[in-house]
Structures are given as structure tokens and as C-alpha cells.
């Protein structure tokens, strides 16, 4: 069956877009980190994935904005499955997705449970009282501090679209000295 004129035009437009986007692609460390931070700050929620019993477990959480070093803080219940899983295996992934801007940021790293009272007070969001009426001093509220070791980004609006176009994300990894490097 021969392709319709519509299919032929769409295929031609797709190839033109690919050439245009590829010519403008940015995948340097700075571009990747700026795109990641922008996506992370824009999104109210992220997906936290943990591993337990050889199976990935994912859930939606409301993170705090990323720290300068890209650490992400999350509030949760000390008795939750995620806390139990992270205590056994701190490997975790955070994913932020922004359909409106054709962007996503995936952070792979390790998480720790933080129960320090001063830190809990400092990071507690007022609206979280809906979940923890006793506030940050309540016995069920803990923090998760996620520290990324690798960041993967795809961001069409910022042209962070490395070759081969559409088939991989731009990636940076934290070196032994703590500096981010292309990966």
C-alpha cells in the first residue's frame, strides 16, 4: 500500500524537524544541569522509585526544590514502605516529567532517611499538616534526602537533545571530587 500524501508530508516534516533540532542540540554539562534544574523547579511532583525484593516500586511525591548540589528533600511517613525499602537499599531514582515543555529529568542516586528534629522543622511545608497534623515534631514525619550520582535529561525546548536524536538522553555523572562530568 502506497503512503498517502498526508503520510509523505508528515514524514518530510519530521525529517526537517530532526535536522533543525540536531543542529541546535546542546549536551554540555552546563546545559544539562540548567535543563535539569529548570524541569525540577517547574514541577510540583516527582516519581520516586526504589527497589525491594528485586522489583521496582514507584510512587508520586511532592519534593522540595533542589539544593545547589542537586540534593532533593522529600517528606514522608517514617512507617511507609518507601522508608523501609530505602533503609534496606538506599539506591533510588527520581523522575520529573513535563509534557508541556517536552522535557524530563531523571536522577539516579542514593537516599538517606533523616530524622534530625532541626532539619525536619527547617524543611517542613505548612500544607503538609494535612498529612502530619503534629507538624515536623510528630513522631511519624521523617525526611528523605536524595543525592544524585547521575542525571539524565531530555529537553526539546532547551535543545538538550543529543545524537542520535530522540534515542537517548543527555547525561552527566558526579565524579569522585563531586564535580559533574559528561557521561
TrEMBL record:
A Pfam family assignment: Pyrid_ox_like
Domain General stress protein FMN-binding split barrel, first and last residues per copy: 40-158
Protein name per its UniProtKB record: Pyridoxamine 5'-phosphate oxidase-related FMN-binding
Highest rank taxon of the organism: Bacteria
Gene3D superfamilies xrefs: Electron Transport, Fmn-binding Protein, Chain A
